Amino acid sequence: ISGVDDSHVFISSGQNVHLPCNNALPDCKSTRWIYISHSSVVDLISDGIKKKDTESHERLSLGSDCSLNIKNITKEDYGLYICRQYVNEEQGAGALVYLHVLH
């Protein structure tokens, strides 16, 4: 599932990060952000709305360009984030962002 358009973001613990969604549609209502760690898959944002039941929910926000903003990065935030578009319940291509946390 890896491709040429994959993004790699390097950030230090404690900073805020902006993860780009390179395949976003204009209003973000079809945007879904998914986080994949070594042990789980977590739905962070679905249909442009934050999921309230995620551990990092308070630190997340959606940018006007559908990017994912995460405040106060911790080493546990590292991993693969996927920005995917859904139109009429059809899954579009995913933009992959690998977050590397330096400590």
TrEMBL record:
Gene3D superfamilies tied to this protein: Immunoglobulins
InterPro entries xrefs: Ig-like_dom, Ig-like_dom_sf, Ig-like_fold, Ig_sub, Ig_V-set
All copies of domain Ig-like, residue ranges: 1-84
One Pfam family matching this protein: V-set
Record PROSITE patterns: IG_LIKE
Name the UniProt record assigns to this protein: Ig-like domain-containing protein
Source organism phylogeny: Eukaryota, Metazoa, Chordata, Craniata, Vertebrata
